[in-house]
Amino acid sequence: xxxxxxxxxxxxxxxxxxxxxxxxxxxxxxxxxxxxxxxxxxxxxxxxxxxxxxxxxxxxxxxxxxxxxxxxxxxxxxxxxxxxxxxxxxxxxxxxxxxxxxxxxxxxxxxxxxxxxxxxxxxxxxxxxxxxxxxxxxxxxxxxxxxxxxxxxxxxxxxxxxxxxxxxxxxxxxxxxxxxxxxxxxxxxxxxxxxxxxxxxxxxxxxxxxxxxxxxxxxxxxxxx
Length: 225
Description:
It is built from 1 helix and 10 strands, in the order H-E-E-E-E-E-E-E-E-E-E. The chain has one helix at residues 2-70; strands at 76-78, 84-86, 99-103, 108-112, 127-128, 141-145, 167-172, 175-188, 203-209, 216-224.
């Protein structure tokens, strides 16, 4: 009788152990599913955002070329050194991108808005910093910032791969401007960023958080070729 009870106890323990393992396996599978679901949703949101962005870029490019061709205010001006500068058109439609930033090395192509646009926010786009000038302004500085990291709005996530001499392009008013990176440096994350550049050169400045460092931001200085 005692052996029968002991055998029954052992069977009960095995059943409980099996149930425990099944529960752990079920919980583990559920957590894996949740993780996969979150990653998939983020990826789909990123792809959707990229598709909409590319559609807006295509529309903007076509309309800007037409506007430049038909507007006397957008006629090119020639500097003393023979350089052709594209003048700004009189009015900007803030419902469309003001320009497009392209960096082929890291596969980036993203539109940005004028500083007066309600869409000019780092939470949704590459943001144009107040005080920026467009590429058609001689010796001016177009300053752009965006998030880095793993989120679908981290448009500057791969800027850390850039080196001195790499190219960046800005399309504005139907003209594509080429820049070369001449300086890369970090600054403390204090809410203020010091811009070190040659004021005799037309400049593109890009700012984002430093990879694997929560205390600094990285500044990329590029000059018009």
